[in-house]
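Here comes my example:
=====
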Amino acid sequence: MNQSSPRNQSDGCMILNSVRGIGPITLSRLMEKFGDDPWQILSASPHQLSQVKGVGKQLIHSVSQVRASGWLEKEKQKLEKIGGNFLDLSKLPTILQQLPDAPIGLYCLGQIPDLPCVSIVGTRVPSNYGKKFARKIAYELAQSGFCIVSGMARGIDTEAHLGALEAGGRTMAFLGTGIDVVYPPENFDLYKNIRKNGAVLSEFPLGRRADRRTFPMRNRLVAGCSLAVVVIESAQSGGSMITAKFAAEQGRTVFALPGRVDLPESRGCLDLIRDGATLVRNALDIIEELAPMLGSMDKKPLSSQTTKQPNPSSELDKNERLIIELFRGGDRLGIEDIQQSTAIETSKVAPSLSMLEIKGLILKCTDGKYEINT
């Protein structure tokens, strides 16, 4: 280690955070043993370290290696180059400090908003219904003064961040990689916008790539930094269900959006509702549930959106009316389904579907079928 480095708390925490094998639980034991002083841990003898439960020869060797490598100065230079900083636990929001498995610190691009947070998570392959409600709920919550938190993954996470940004609100993304690794790569522009309008955060050192361990660790922070977690769509097993489990264990409120019982992407949410999660229909459901913790929230943006809008259904021709009625039961229908259920000429079905889509009454799904735009 470069002895010229100032021995401040943040630097010591950054070094400990880089040691492979030191997870949140082992870290908590080490900090308790050595008086919450990371430098005492780093200068401890192998014998002293071995007295801490969970610390073995490999971990002791890793501490010794990073201590002698000059890693800290290199990491700080790279972090400065990308305009980021490292926040030790004392500089993180109180709600994160209180976690039993709190991070020793977080890498940060941007600035953590001083706002109550709600996390929105869900599948990476959502339906149009899921995408619509993720963005709408995020938009309305952001308008009402919440910071929207998610993991910047494809699908529901992306829609949640976009909804907050479209509302002119604040949003935070916890990554399962280092903050300098943009994943998925197509979200690079989103990554830049989140940084400008909130924060991109990670407990992993720069350059760290995602693996099976990093995403669950990320998910506990997505849940832990928020008053509530909203699951929009999820299969019965997956990252969103892990996040919901963390939220329940941390004493957070878990909300779930109901969906059709015959769709795989609805099953996780339906299971959560069955097991006690709060059913959510809109942002107002969340605000009213959380209001006792926060005092009154601004509901004007929500009520202003109830202004009566023109009804595109009143401007449909005969074929369009016949087709839209088929969707009223909530089914997804393809062109062949519609041809078999109506007397509309085959050549006129596709144009009618296109017009209904243009008017915002139906949406085209990834499988080529259509569903009603609720």
